[in-house]
Amino acid sequence: MAGEFEYIAWLRSQTPDDPRVVIGPGDDCAALLPGSRPLLVTTDMLMDGTDFVLASVGPRRAGRKAMSVNLSDIAAMAGVPTAAVVSVALPKGPTPSPALKGGEQQEAPSPTPSPRGEGLKTEERPVLSPPSLSGKEVGGLGSSSSSPSLQDGGWGGGASGTGGVGSPHGIDLARELYLGLRDVADAFGVALVGGDTNSWDGKLAISVTALGEATARGPVRRNGAKPGDWLFVTGPLGGSILGHHLDFTPRVREALCLHATVEIHAMIDISDGLAADVNHICAESACGAVLVAERIPIADAARTLSATSGRTPLMHALGDGEDFELVFAVSPEVGQRLLNEPPVPGLTKIGECVESGLWLEEGGVRKPLTPTGWVHDL
Ligand SMILES: [Mg+2]
């Protein structure tokens, strides 16, 4: 079986030199050269069973999603992503314990994946069993209490078990996860500079902290929308649970292009759902918004899902989460410019900001719109 130090050597061999990185993986801390503009920091944690189902998607896609959701937040501020650190809790293996011998299932079947903001009611969300914290199988490579950080030597290959039927496990899982993170990091010039590795009796959890740099025009916030502004989105919405929530491209390039071309008053990435995230802009900007039903671009997946969900494609577009498109507010003059000469493809005007309230206009009739979306129960 591959050991921790073999994995460390592999990991370090995979890390290219980067002029921005003074010290990369392998020491107690990474050291980065400071940029000249405000540093953007964001973090997002993904968990097997809530944000993806490892047994279905495998660690490489899970790794890609973990990096992409973080870069989407950098995009939402129209920043340039630069570096990231990654903490993982790797599932320890299915070493049969005496109580489980004799053909008993070791683990309940994986719950249905449910991207945030899908609009599920609380009681419909998958319930995850609390993992055992007994630590009785500690003694493999790297327990949660003694595992090395990435700087100390990378993902220590502490897991000896599976991520699910058909998934790689142990060091193979760790490697595939890393390669998935690198797929996206490399595509956006992000240096993976460190992290922390743990293993436990629970499912895979991945926490990425991404760093970025504001452009010379500064970060775009949620709080600058004004009544009369036009609202745009960068792509079709809804039905992401059918696959888009795993395989999307964070809109980093689109955001930078827009920010360089026009003045954006407010912007957010759609993670909770269109209605919920427009509501976030409204709350921060102290204004309201009206969305025009006929203008909202609806993804094919939303129509597919509608065939069996009992909800209309529009409801999916308004309420499903994890589209990871951008929604933003601009002045009417800028909005007209964007319609006449769109600097990026896929732009659609979906409504306007108003003094107060959240509204859906359908067939010329304006009705209150409930900002349904994903909320973690605490
Ligand atoms: Mg966000």
UniProtKB/TrEMBL annotation:
InterPro entries to which the protein is assigned, alphabetical: PurM-like_C_dom, PurM-like_C_sf, PurM-like_N, PurM-like_N_sf, ThiL-like
Top EC class for this record: transferase
Gene: thiL
UniProt feature, compositional bias: Low complexity: 143-152
Residues annotated for Mg(2+) 1 binding in this entry: T43, D44, D196
Binding of Mg(2+) 5, residues: D272
Positions contributing to Mg(2+) 2 binding: D44, D73
Pathway: Cofactor biosynthesis; thiamine diphosphate biosynthesis; thiamine diphosphate from thiamine phosphate: step 1/1
Region (Disordered), start-end ranges: 94-163
Keywords: ATP-binding, Kinase, Magnesium, Metal-binding, Nucleotide-binding, Thiamine biosynthesis, Transferase
Gly residues: bias regions: 153-163
GO biological process: thiamine biosynthetic process; thiamine diphosphate biosynthetic process
Binding-site residues for ATP, renumbered to this chain: Y178, G195, D196, R222, S271
Protein known as: Thiamine-monophosphate kinase
Any GO molecular function: magnesium ion binding
Sequence similarity: Belongs to the thiamine-monophosphate kinase family.
Organism: Frigoriglobus tundricola
PurM-like N-terminal domain ranges (all copies): 26-94, 171-213
Function: Catalyzes the ATP-dependent phosphorylation of thiamine-monophosphate (TMP) to form thiamine-pyrophosphate (TPP), the active form of vitamin B1.
Ligand binding (Mg(2+) 3): D28, D73, D269
EC number in record: 2.7.4.16
Binding-site list for Mg(2+) 4: D28, T42, D73
Misc. comment: Reaction mechanism of ThiL seems to utilize a direct, inline transfer of the gamma-phosphate of ATP to TMP rather than a phosphorylated enzyme intermediate.
Residue ranges of every copy of the PurM-like C-terminal domain listed in the record: 242-355
CDD domains recorded: ThiL
